[in-house]
Write a structure and sequence with these properties.
CATH architecture: Beta Barrel
Radius of gyration: 13 Å
Distance between the termini: 26 Å
Number of strands: 6
Number of domains: 1
Strand order of the largest sheet: 1-5-2-4-3-6
Amino acid sequence: MPVVPESQVQIVKVRATAFCQYGYDSNGIDYGPGYVIISSQSEIPLYSLLDIDIYGEAQAIGVSDELAKDEIELWYNAPSKIPMFGEQEAYVRVLEKGDKPEMRD
């Protein structure tokens, strides 16, 4: 996969919330570390590889119609972290286009 040149890296300011859910989404993709849900109206391309200042490396592999254009949800592994995280401002760097993860059987 080609990496986007630094001069063309897209940076998006968003409101981030956290979620904790285990299992598979409707596309058969397993929830887990680095799983990011974006708005269906987002400027962030689906499946793109991301660097999020308050989260680290991630991939946008889910879409929600319930999120505003400038909102994302970040996966965390413990329900207790969700209320502590609250809502935070985040800067998302779109590093490169990614591929849809393989579905699980």
